[in-house]
Amino acid sequence: MLAPDQLRDAVERYLATLELAPELGLLEGPIRYALEPGGKRIRPILCLAVAESAGGDVDEALPAAAAIELVHTFSLVHDDLPAMDDDAERRGRPSAHVVFGEGPALLAGDALLAEAVRLALTYGTTGIARELVEATLGMIGGQHRDIAGETEDSTELQALKTGRLFTAAVGLGLGVARVPEAEQAPWRAFGEELGVLFQTVDDILDADGVVEELGAEAARGRADDAAARARARLEALPADTAVLRELVDRLAERTV
Amino acid sequence: MLAPDQLRDAVERYLATLELAPELGLLEGPIRYALEPGGKRIRPILCLAVAESAGGDVDEALPAAAAIELVHTFSLVHDDLPAMDDDAERRGRPSAHVVFGEGPALLAGDALLAEAVRLALTYGTTGIARELVEATLGMIGGQHRDIAGETEDSTELQALKTGRLFTAAVGLGLGVARVPEAEQAPWRAFGEELGVLFQTVDDILDADGVVEELGAEAARGRADDAAARARARLEALPADTAVLRELVDRLAERTV
After folding, report:
1. Which residues in chain B are closer than 8 Å to A82, comparing Cβ atoms?
2. Which pLDDT value is given to residue B145?
3. Which sign, positive or negative, has the C-alpha torsion A118, A120, A122, A128?
4. Residue of A nearest to B85 (CA)
5. How many residue pairs bridge chain A and chain B with CB atoms within 8 Å of each other?
C-alpha cells in the first residue's frame, strides 16, 4: 500500500506529463499554470487510496484521480474570476486570470472540464464519466447557491460544493477497483464524512463558513465528530484501510 | 424521412422538456433562457438528418443532437461574457449575463457543458461522449486563437471554431446509426464542407471574417464552392440524402 505522500507524488507526476488536446494550442499555458503543484491534491489522493484499499491498482486509477483534480481545478479557475469571487490570488500565487487575462482563464476552465471528461472516458465504460459529470453538476449547483446567497442551509451547500467531489473521488476509486454497486454504500458514506471534515477544517482555518454560523468551538466539535464518524466507517469496512485512516488524521489535524 | 422543419420541431420539443440535474436549482433559469428557441438549431438538425439518412432512428438520435446544441449554447453563453466578446445581445434578446448576471451566466455555461456530456453518456458506450468532448476541445482551442489574435490562418480558425462541432454533429448521427468507422469518412467530409459553407455565409451576412480578409466576391465564391463540394459529397453517398441536400441549399441561400 502506498502512503499518502507516495500517492501524491504519483498524482504530481501524472499531471505534469498529462497530454492535452493539441488543438488547445497556446491555451495550454493557463491550463498548465492552474494544474501546477501547490494544491493539497486531496481528492485524487483519496481516489487512489480508495482504489488500492478496495483491491484495485493505483496506476489504473490515475486517470480517474486526475480527472477529479481537473474538475476541482476548473472550478477554482472559474471561481477566482471577477464574475465570481474575484480572487487575485490562489495558493499564494496570482490567479490564472491575473496572469493570462480573463478570457483565457475562462476558456482554460472550460478546457479543464472537457479534458477531465476525456480522461474519465479512457476507461471504456460510461460509469466513471457519468459519476464525474453528475458530481460536477452538483458542485456547480452548490456554487450557484453560494453566489445567489442561498446559504441558509450550510450543510446542504457544503454537501454540494465540496461533498459531491469527495464522494465522487471515492466512487471513482471503487469503480476502477470494480467494487460492485451493492457494496459501495459504506465506502461512499466514508467519502461524505471526509468531505464534511475537510470543509469544516477549511472553515476553521479561514474563520468563516460554519465558524461564522456556529462559533469556533462548535465548528471544532463538528470537525471532530466528522473525523470520528469517518474512522468508524473505515473500521467497519472489510479492507485494509490504514492509508485512508492516515488521510482522516491528516485532514483532522491540518493547519494549512 | 423527416424534413428539416420537422427535425427542428423535434429538437425544440426535446429541449423544452429536457430534464436538468435537480441540484442545479435556480441555475435552471439562465440555462433554460439560453436554450430557448431562437437559434437556427442547425447542428442538431444536421445530426438527426445524418442519423436518419444513414439508416438510424431520429428519436434515438435526439439526446446526441441535443448534446451538440448544448455544447454550442455553452460556447455562446461564455462567448458573450464581458471577459470574452462582451455582447449584450444574442438573437435579438439580452444575453444571459445581462439578464441573470455574469456569475450565473458563467455557471450556466459550465452546467450546459456538463449536461451535454450527461446526455452523450446515455448511449451506454463511450464513443458518442468521446466525439463530443474532443470536438468541444477543438472548439475551445479555436476560441482561444480568436481572442489571442492568432487569426492569420482563418481556414484553420474556422475549422476549429465551427468545423469541429459540425463534423461532430455528423459523427454523432453516424454513431447513433451504427455506421462502421471505416465507412464514415465521406460523411464526415460532407460535415466539414457544410461547416465551411455555414461559417462563410455567416461572414457574408455579418460582413466580417472572410469578407474582411478576401472581399465580398471571393467570400461568395468560397461559399458556392463549399456548397458544390457538399452536394458532390452527398451524391457519392450510398444513402437517401435528400434532406441533407435540402439543408445544403438552405444554408447556401440563407439571409439570416
Report:
1. 83, 102
2. 96
3. negative
4. A103
5. 157
List the one residue out of A158, A191, A161 whose CA is nearest residue A173. Answer: A191
Please tell me the distance from the alpha carbon of residue A30 to that of residue B51, in angstroms, as a whole number: 38
Q: What is the pLDDT of residues A181-224, one digit of tens each?
A: 999 999 999 999 999 999 999 999 999 888 988 899 999 999 99
Gap between the Cα atoms of B106 and B96, Å rounded: 9
- Give the ipTM: 0.97
* 3-state helix, strand and coil shares in percent for chain B, rounded to the nearest 5: 75, 0, 25
Q: What is the pLDDT of residues A18-65, one digit of tens each?
A: 999 999 999 999 999 999 988 899 999 999 999 999 999 999 999 999
Mean of the per-residue pLDDT values of chain A: 96
pLDDT at B77: 98
Using a CB-CB distance cutoff of 8 angstroms, which residues of chain B are in contact with residue A133?
A: 114, 117-118, 121
Identify the closest residue of chain B to A79 by CA–CA distance: B103
Q: For residue B98, what pLDDT is reported? A: 97
For domain B4-253, which CATH number applies: 2.70.50.60, 1.20.1050.10, 3.30.2000.10, 1.10.600.10? Answer: 1.10.600.10
**Cβ pair B23:A138 closer than 8 A:** yes
Q: Pull the grid cell for residue A146.
A: 453560494
Contacting residues of A for B125, CB less than 8 Å apart: 126
- Residues of A with Cβ-Cβ distance to B148 under 8 angstroms: 26, 104
* Cα A169 from Cα B159, distance rounded (Å): 36
A-interface mutation test, from B71, B137, B143, B162, most A Cβ less than 10 A away: B137
- pLDDT over threshold 90, residue A104: yes
Does residue B62 contact residue B11 with C-beta atoms inside 8 Å?
yes
Q: What is the pTM of this model?
A: 0.97
Q: Select from B76, B86, B106 the residue whose CB has the most chain A CBs within 10 Å, as the one to mutate to test that interface.
A: B106
Using an 8 Å CB-CB cutoff, list chain B residues near A103. Answer: 83-84, 144, 147
Per-residue pLDDT averaged across A10-22, rounded? 98
